[in-house]
Amino acid sequence: MSNLFLAKTCELHVHIGGCLSAEHLLELGREHYKNIDWTLYKSSYQKAFGYIPDPCQYFSQAIADENPRALEPFYTIDKKDAGDFNRFQAKYDFGLCIFRYWWHTLGRVNELLDRIFQQHQNEGIRYIEYRALAPHGEGASKDLVDFHETIANAIRDVCNKNFQARYIISLPRNSSLACYNIIKQWLDLKPNLRPYIVGFDFCHFEEGFPPAQLRDFFSQLHADNTNDPENYFGVTYHVGEIFFDKSLESSIRWCHEVVELGATRLGHCIALGLDPEVSINRKPNAHLFESVSERIAQIQYDLKYNEQLKDWGIEINLYELEKELKTLKKISKEKRIKRIYSKDRLTEIRLRQNFVLFQLKKSNVVIEVCPTSNLLLGCIPDPSVHPIHRFMESGVSVTIGSDDPGLFGRSLSEEIDWVVRHLKISNSQLNRHLQNPVDFRFSKRRNKSPFGK
């Protein structure tokens, strides 16, 4: 059985809240759209698009025409949304409002989840790791537990000999350790759910949340995994996906820092695979500015790795860096500084990408590539410059995911077909590069898994 075929049966990067298609939403909202609380959607949509939408009008039109596509402009992601996570979040919230209504008002969330599970079984998926981010505001510990327990129970109950599902809990970047400790305490009381919860994820907004802020979380998790390997939790981390707030060097560094902290799967990593000349031309002034704190972190990184960077052809002037560092430490950390991209700088950035990709390969880290999501959210102008080309050339391990198939309009199988069409390599070469995605699942690190050790 080829790895290409296996890739269509094993989904490792999918957000459960992004699985509902426009057809699903029309069916779920048909009798309820007038009663749904659309406040969240209206607020986020106004923030992203500049006006308040009327979802009831959209539903009324879709029902009158018996056409779910009438909902798509307000829900599915297209080229006009490219590179703007606020626009993505606004459209995501359209489905989330329906999700919450079925959950909290109707008390029938399991019916909604069953539709998602059935859809993936119909697509031929045999193993899947769903992920979801729960409410995590101050004092929301009960909501956090109730949310994850409901989904974990549903995932446990749907498993059968032909379909195995597991759960990756998405943690908020700004309160990861606190939420992790709540999850640990809950699982101590629910040991029957432990086999189905296999890891943690970091998603949502990436900009403004440096990986270094999660050092305490990773230290605690490593200690817990060492003390209790039977209940090992893996970490997957969205990084280098949307990174317009900083320089390309810092964006590349973030990917390396996450690996140093201990993540074994990285979501997207566009910063490592997209050519820097393409990156800086995606938007006006793209990556020209970054905070003083980011520049300081980059200098400290270069000083730490100066010998290894030199081995990769990257020139490190220790005297100049230390001089710049001394100056920057006298400036407000929030101040943004500008650095122009020269031809030589772009060449060096390509070498930095090579260096970090090599570190990932050496550490057996897997990049989770979501082709359509990357094209749209990553503001990638053409499939020919998609990061997956660079990843395949580097030899780093790659798995293909659908991310949010409802919003992006492509199933896992269709994402794999996209890769086959656009990669300039033979199917046999692609088979070798993709490997068997089942080998990358988090449950493999435990003694008990649906596919053995």
How would you describe what is shown here?
The protein is an alpha/beta fold and 453 residues long. The protein has one domain (3-284, 364-445): TIM Barrel (Alpha-Beta Barrel), CATH 3.20.20.140. The chain is 50% helix and 11% strand. The protein is built from 21 helices and ten strands. Strands 1-2-3-4-5-6-9-10 form an eight-stranded parallel sheet. A two-stranded antiparallel ribbon has the order 7-8. Strand 4, helix 9 and strand 5 form a beta-alpha-beta unit.
Give keywords.
453 residues, alpha/beta, TIM Barrel, 8-stranded parallel beta sheet, two-stranded antiparallel sheet, 21 helices, 50% helix
Which helices and strands, and how do they pair?
Blueprint: H1 3-7, E1 10-15, H2 22-29, H3 39-49, H4 55-65, H5 85-105, H6 109-122, E2 127-133, H7 141-158, E3 164-171, H8 176-189, E4 197-202, H9 215-227, E5 234-239, H10 248-261, E6 265-268, H11 270-273, H12 276-280, E7 289-291, H13 292-304, H14 306-311, H15 318-328, E8 336-338, H16 343-362, E9 366-369, H17 371-377, H18 387-394, E10 397-400, H19 405-408, H20 412-422, H21 427-434
Helix pairs in contact: 3-5, 6-7, 10-16, 13-15
Determine the number of helices (DSSP H or I, runs of at least 4 residues): 21
Domains (count): 1
What class, by secondary structure content?
Answer: alpha/beta
Q: Percentage of helical residues?
A: 40-55%
CATH architectural grouping = Alpha-Beta Barrel
Poorly predicted runs: 447-453
- Approximate strand percentage: 5-15%
Query: What is the molecular shape?
Result: globular
N- to C-terminal distance? 20 Å
If you average the pLDDT, what whole number results? 94
Tell me the name of the CATH class: Alpha Beta
Beta-strand segment tally:
10
CATH superfamily: Metal-dependent hydrolases
Kindly provide the radius of gyration, computed on alpha-carbon positions and rounded to a whole number of angstroms.
22 Å
